[in-house]
Structures are given as C-alpha cells and as structure tokens.
Write a structure and sequence with these properties.
four-stranded mixed beta sheet, about 45% helix, alpha+beta, globular, L-fuculose-1-phosphate Aldolase
C-alpha cells in the first residue's frame, strides 16, 4: 500500500511499523475547519505531544490513490503521524506496540478536541509544549 510504504521509505530508522485506522473522532475532527494543517491535533494533553509530535493534516485523496503516498513522501519523514482528511490517521513508530499506543492516543485526543470544541477548551501554551518536547525528546520541527 503506497501510504504505508511512504513512511518506511522516509522514516526507515524510525518506522518499524505503520498503522492506518478509520477512527470515528479523528475522522470527524478532520471534517472541521483547521487553523494549521502542519500541526492539526490540538495540544490538549501532554501525552498526545509525547507520543505523536506534530500531526499533519493531508488533503483528501481517493482511498488507494498513489497521491497519498507521494504527499507523505513529500513531508520527508518529518511527521510520525498524519491525518488523511475525511479518511483516517496513519501512524508510524519503531514497534507495532508503540504505533498502536500512539494511534490510541491520537483518537483519545481527537475525541477530547471534538467534544470540547464548542466550549473553547484550554490548550497547552507554546511554552508548555516546548517544555514537553525538550523533556521527552519529541520530534517537533
């Protein structure tokens, strides 16, 4: 599948496993307006940042399209996870277990974001995010 292979091609030393889901809340959140496609998932908890880094929103392509893989390869391995708009997340990690845990964290954070969106939730400040990135050696830029 081109989208899986794109992660293996661009994150060879970091992608021992790639998982792709059609999760309810993350897909629902991908249907809503987004302020920053390069950092799609709101910074609501430290765990999403720690396990995922920045999650890039990829535009909609028909499922199975080679454009999905080309778009992911165009990111040059800078993201461990991407969200395919109107489709679902794709997450890479060193092990299958780590990829599954990260996928669960993505869906939990998306659920929180979706459920609290109209309530204007408090998000972590840039300073708090940077502290997490530094403390846990998170891929960020």
């Amino acid at each position: 599948v081109p989208l899986h292979q794109a992660f293996y091609n661009t994150r060879a030393d970091k992608a021992g496993a790639v998982v792709h889901l059609h999760s309810c809340y993350s897909t629902a959140l991908s249907l809503l307006p987004c302020d920053d496609i390069t950092d799609w998932l709101p910074h609501l908890t430290p765990y999403g940042i720690m396990q995922l880094g920045k999650v890039r929103l990829i535009p909609y392509f028909i499922p199975g399209s080679s454009e999905i893989g080309r778009t992911i390869e165009g990111l040059a391995g800078k993201h461990a996870a991407v969200m395919l708009a109107s489709h679902g997340p794709v997450i890479s990690a060193k092990t299958l277990e780590a990829a599954v845990y990260a996928a669960e964290e993505l869906e939990a954070t998306a659920k929180l974001a979706y459920l609290t969106r109209s309530l204007e939730p408090n998000i972590l400040s840039n300073e708090q995010v940077q502290e997490i990135v530094k403390q846990y050696n998170v891929e960020w830029d």
